[in-house]
Structure formats: C-alpha cells, structure tokens
Amino acid sequence: MSLIRSTALAAAALLALCAIPAFAVSPSVTNVQATQQQDASRKVKITYYLSDPDSSSVYVTLTISTDNGATYTITPSLATGSIGWVRTGGTRTIYWDAKSQYPTGQWATCKAKVTADDSSGGVNPGQMVYIPAGSFLMGNSNVGNDVYGLFFEFPQHSVNLSGYWIGKYEVTRGEYRAFMTATGRAAPTYWDAVQNWGTGSFTQTDNHPVVGVTYYDAEAFCNWAGGHLPTEAQWEKAARWTGSNPRVYPWGDPWDQEKCNNYSDSNPAGGGLYKYQTAAVGSYPSGASPYGCQDMAGNVWEWVQDWYKSYPNSSSPFDYTGSYRVLRGGSWYDFTGSSYDSRCAFRYGRSPFYYWNDYGFRLAR
Predict the structure, then answer these.
(1) Which of 2, 232, 237 is closest to 108 using CA atoms?
(2) What is the rounded CA–CA span in Å between residue 115 and residue 84?
C-alpha cells in the first residue's frame, strides 16, 4: 500500500545556456510513484522517469511536505539513489528511510516532490551545444600565433561535418559519480576530493572535471550516457571555427593567460598564480569558443576518438594507430608553453591506457 502520495514537478531551467536557444529544453520528470517496501527496512521507494533531450545529466532534488502539499520545504536527510546529478533518459529510483527520519509516524502522511533542474548552481555539466553541419578549416594555418606549429598540425585542410552536439563543459566528477553508481565501475585515480599536486592542497567539487581517466574510461562513460567521444574534427570545429575562419585559441588569436586555467593565470578558481589544480568547469567564461563551449583551452587535456596519425597529404606522414589516441586543449599544468599547447590546432598523442591528473574529456552526440 502506498503510504505517501507523490507529485511531480519539472523545474524550468534557471539559465538558457545553450548556444542555440531553439535547442534549450527544460528537463521533464514524469510518472512519479511512491510505495513502502514490505521488508524490515520499511523504506519508501520513489520511482520517476527523467528525460531531457539536450542534457546528459540534470540535478534532481527530492523535497517533502508535511502540510498536505501546501509547502515542500523539507529535504530528506536519509535519501539515497538517483538524487543529485542524475543521468537522463530512463526510470530512476530513490529510497527514503522515512521511518528513521520520522520515528513517531509523521512520515505516513507526507507528500513527496521530485524536481529536475538543468542549471544547478549556474553550471550544468551535462548541457550540450549544437554545432551545425558544414565545412571548416582544420589544422595549423601557419599564420600569426599558429606559425610555430609542428609537423603533426599540418597541412590545414577542409573537413565537412554533419550537425552534432558536444558538451558545453568537460565531464564533471558529479556526472562521473552517477556513472560509477549505475555501472559499478571503479573510481579513477585522483578521485579523492582533496588533492595536492605540488603547489598546495585544494578540494575537487562535483563541478570540477573528472581527471585520472584513461581513454577507455572516457569511452565507457560516453557509451553509458548515450553518446560518444568527439572526433578530432568535431572537437576542433567546436573549439575554434567562427563560420568563416579558425581562431588560434577559443576566444581569438592573441594569447591571454587569464582566459583559461593554466599555471600563469591569476583566477582563484584555478588556485591563482602558479598553482597546479583544476578549476570548476565554466570558471573562465571569457575564454569560450565561438559556439560557447567552455574550457577548450587549459583546465584538462581532453580525450578524443581518433588514433594519432598524420593529416591527409602531410609532408611528414606518421601513423600510431593501435598505440596512441589523441588529446586536445592543454591543461592546468601548462606554464611556459601555455600559449603553445593550448592552441586549438595542437595535437597530443598518448597510450589509451595512460592516465594523469590533467586528463579528462567531454561528451558528444
């Protein structure tokens, strides 16, 4: 027998963060049901269906009313399961130990409300940006700040892509935690919240990018989330293409150390000057790409799909297929070479089994 009545409310997004407003859709919570389990725990099982076409995860909150639904002001302290950052696209379950929270029996007349918000705290890690179909120029232009590129960035060439979605932000610890919970996958290295990478300790929050992941960790997450790692071409177009020309950096052609998380920037989100640490995603909004993607320079290197090999018609052909996958974008670690490694044309090849405290990724669909 159901001991509490339930209602569903899909909260409207607080911020329209999508680069193309027509694709910004609020999350939907439907088919909310609450029943008491008939085992010794007597916990209340709350199920709901969660969907959002433009976000891979949203922030789910459970609140309780003790005044017959007039107000929902109580956050259950003994609730587990699919609350917090939750993957979209399916039926989810919350378990509330209502009897322990209300031992006198008040819980039997409570009502529950499940809400979903795709911009919690002003940052939604799961939000996707749409990149329209069309051609763009990929690789080093050998002009301006790109002039000191190496052979693996040449030649610049035209690539035609179908339309696709890509993460506005790098995949966060909060999203990755939901993946671990759902699949039983082990935590990556550097998972502990408090870290010290040589210049003082700092705390990783759920809005910091997940680090310490191998290529295969990143690929498994993307498969679970109903997407894939971006290809090199998808990543680079989202990072630099203005519609008519490729930028050297996501924000433009001149180097500006304050527009991304690197060793020489002074933003306290990244620890300030000369600090080795990640920053919460979206902490450098002035460094956004032409499509509005964040942190495509600095913060963490990002795994992409491709094997590391030369571009077509290269004068210095190479092929590490089977050995190295590609990472893009530079990281917090870069200092004297920040302006070099953080260029959108730069390519970095590593073994797909390798991991480090500045390796992360973003999702594409």
Answers:
(1) 2
(2) 10
Domain range annotation of the chain: 5-122, 128-360
Provide the CATH topology of domain 128-360: paralog of FGE (formylglycine-generating enzyme) (3.90.1580)
Check if the beta carbon of residue 301 is closer than 8 Å to that of residue 331: yes
For the CA atoms of 142, 295, 86, 28, what is the dihedral angle to 10 degrees?
Answer: -80
Task: Name the range with the highest mean pLDDT among 49-53, 76-80, 194-198.
Answer: 194-198
pLDDT at 89 over 80: yes
pLDDT at 2: 33
Which 3-state string (H, E, C) describes 150-187?
A: CHHHCCCEEEEECCEEEECCCCEHHHHHHHHHHHCCCC
Angle at 194 between CA 189 and CA 197, to 5 degrees: 70
pLDDT of residue 216: 98
Whether residue 250 is preceded by a cis peptide bond, meaning omega within 30 degrees of 0, is: no
Q: How far apart are CA 354 and CA 295, in angstroms?
A: 22
Count CB atoms within 10 A of the CB of residue 350: 20
- Per-residue pLDDT for 12 more than 50? no
Closest to 207 in 3D by CA, of 131, 147, 269, 254: 269
- Determine the length of the chain: 365
β-pair partners for 59? 85, 117
pLDDT in tens, 284-304: 999 999 999 999 999 999 999
